[in-house]
Design a protein that fits this description.
210 residues, mainly alpha, 9 helices
Length: 210
Amino acid sequence: MTTYLSFLVLVLVISIAPGPDTALTLRAALVRGRGAGLLTMAGVSAAGALQGLLAAGGLGAIIVASEPLFLTVKWVGAAYLLFLGVQALRAARRIDVDEVAVVDPAAAPGANQRRRTTVVQGFLCNITNPKVLAFNLAVLPQFLGSGASLPVLALYALSLVALGSAWLTVIVLVADRARTVLNAPRIRRRIEASMGVVMIGFGASVASSH
């Protein structure tokens, strides 16, 4: 039990540290509201659970050990983060700083498609980040050793996802409350631009990592 609690403390510290998943979720919540933030979090969590189970089942080690496959994941992840950054910058340019009314995204045409896209964005942001899989493979053995059973490995891996999801939910709720103050077009434009720069920075970090 002491080992598990120590693991949870480490996971909580890591979850609080800013990363691509946090930035993407925060952007969705600030720009499009609580629903979009929670959908992004759901996509991130689903991908995190998949990566954790891959690590627990041993497939993650095969991916990391295969340099061509791991590099493919790395470059796809970097490219996707850069794409999200450019997308945010383009969105910032499209915002009319003189507009008065802000349309509720949930009521806009094509809202269902946007919801699906939001979930997929969160999923891809996490699943293409090789650091998540590498973290699972590096940290789990430190707490469990080499003889841990699959259910125990899965418990630890999914605990990482659960705490991360809880933290992202807190971010979404706080951002949603702040959105009532930050919803002016000029401010939304700055948020989109700032998040675009941040995502491009994360993409460059993934690309340059070894």
